[in-house]
Structure formats: structure tokens, C-alpha cells
Amino acid sequence: RRERQRFVDKNGRCNVQHGNLGGETSRYLSDLFTTLVDLKWRWNLLIFLLTYTVAWLVMASMWWGIAYLRGDLHRAHGDTYSPCVANVYNFPSAFLFFIETEATIGYGHRYITERCPEGIVLFLFQSLLGSVVDAFLIGCMFIKMSQPKKRAETLMFSHAAVISQRDDKLCLMFRVGNLRNSHMVSAQIRCKLIKSRQTPEGEFLPLDQCELDVGFGTGADQLFLVSPLTICHEINSESPFFCLSQRSLRSEQFEIVVILEGIVETTGKT
């Protein structure tokens, strides 16, 4: 049997592609920080490495350019001549001086002198730029590593939902469980029925969302997820499945999306 195209995959990824929006790229770039956090790890690491590599090369070239324009590359550095940066004779030495300054290593062999106002200005600019780049990229990597998305890997859902009798009522049921010892604080579960329908006015809604009651009125949707729990939707007169038979249920085109929300106890993030 050919598998149907899902609206939401089992891993929670939505199969939705945007198109013909206009200015989509500029909107993503205007919120660059969130765009970097949402990127996949391989692109995030590539941008991380390229940004630092380019910044290092550009700043090292600026230090080399100052030494070149002052003529420090071709003169002996000693008591008779005070260069802008001591012991910088070529591009590798300028690159090493920049790395020592940026990483605050301070070997002491290369140092800036007081007779170089342009070098002092470049030093201040380097310090400010380095702080901004570090805060932006390291903050992005930290937030990406601490995202609670992977916490969902230890939340187990049953592979199939069943319709059966419970308390003399016909119910749609499935199970959910938590594998970790750490709790999901304020865990709440919701169910959405995604199905196309046509309104009485003749309007066709291709992806209409309908709420399935899993105990909203009784508080059963607020979970104490310590042991595996069975989530129950009563098929009553208000349920969208009330008018379906067993045969029509197999032929209907719909999808049930289960949303489990909670606060991760170890990180405090939703």
C-alpha cells in the first residue's frame, strides 16, 4: 500500500514549503540570530569557522598593512628605531600578533608600542569587533546546544492509536511515556485533527484544524508524566469521528497531530 504524504512527520518536522512570498530572504536576514540558530549543525559549524577565519585574516592583514606603510618590515627593530609592533617582520608574524592579542595569550615577544597612534586605534577596533563576534557566534552555539528539541527523543508515543470501549464509552486511545528520570514539569497534551472540509458557503479548506478533546474540561490533559499514560478521546456527539463507521474510517483522508508541551526540569526550557 502506498504511504500517504504526511503533514507532520513522526519526528515533528512539518512538511510545509513556502513560496511566492516576496522578500523572503531579506526577512530571514533581518533576524539573523534566529536564522543561525535554526540552521542545521553542519551549516552552523561552517559559518562559525568561516567567520572566524575571515575575521582573523582581515585583521592580520590590517596589522601587516600598518607595518608595511610605516616601513617596519624592512628595518631592524631595536633601540634606534621604534616600530608600531615589535618583532613583526612579515604576514605570519602579524597574524601571530593578532592571535595573541585576540586570545589574550600574551607571550610577550610581540607588543604594540606607544609611538603608533594608528595601531592603538586598530587595537581598540579589534577589541570591540572581537567581543561582538564572540558574543554573537558563541551565544548562537550555546543556545543551539541547549535547545530542548532533543529532549523529545526520550518521549515515546505508541506507534498506533486504537478505538475501543472504556467505561462503556467508545474512545480513541494512544499511549505516551517518558524514558528519563527527570520530569516534564507542567506537561500538557493536545490533539489536532487535520482534514479538508467544505463550508456551507462552498469554500474549500484544504488543511482545516479541529481540536480533539482529550480531557480539557476535566483536567485530564494536564499530565503527571512519571509512568506511561494512556490518552483518551471520547467519541461522543461532539467528536468529529462520531458519524464515521469502521469502513469509512479507513477511506477517510485525515491526520491526527499530538502535541506534548512541558518544561524540561534540568534546563527550565519549554
UniProtKB/TrEMBL annotation:
Enumerate the catalysed reactions.
K(+)(in) = K(+)(out)
Name of one Pfam family that matches: IRK_C
| Domain Inward rectifier potassium channel C-terminal, chain residue ranges per copy | 155-270
Q: Which parts of the chain span the membrane according to its record?
A: 45-66, 120-143
> Which GO molecular function annotations are given, in alphabetical order?
G-protein activated inward rectifier potassium channel activity
Task: Report whether Glycosyltransferase shows up as a keyword of the record.
Answer: no
Keyword line: Ion channel, Ion transport, Membrane, Potassium, Potassium transport, Transmembrane, Transmembrane helix, Transport, Voltage-gated channel
Q: Which regions form coiled coils?
A: none
Q: How does it sit in the membrane?
A: Multi-pass membrane protein
- Gene Ontology cellular component list: monoatomic ion channel complex; plasma membrane
Q: Where is the Potassium channel inwardly rectifying transmembrane domain?
A: 8-148
Write out the GO biological process terms: potassium ion import across plasma membrane; regulation of monoatomic ion transmembrane transport
Indicate where this protein resides in the cell. Answer: Membrane
Q: Would the keyword Transport turn up in this protein's UniProt record?
A: yes
Primary location group = membrane
Matching PANTHER family? G PROTEIN-ACTIVATED INWARD RECTIFIER POTASSIUM CHANNEL 1 (PTHR11767:SF99), INWARD RECTIFIER POTASSIUM CHANNEL (PTHR11767)
Protein name per Swiss-Prot or TrEMBL? G protein-activated inward rectifier potassium channel 1
Q: Which organism is it from?
A: Chaetops frenatus
| Gene (name only) | Kcnj3_0
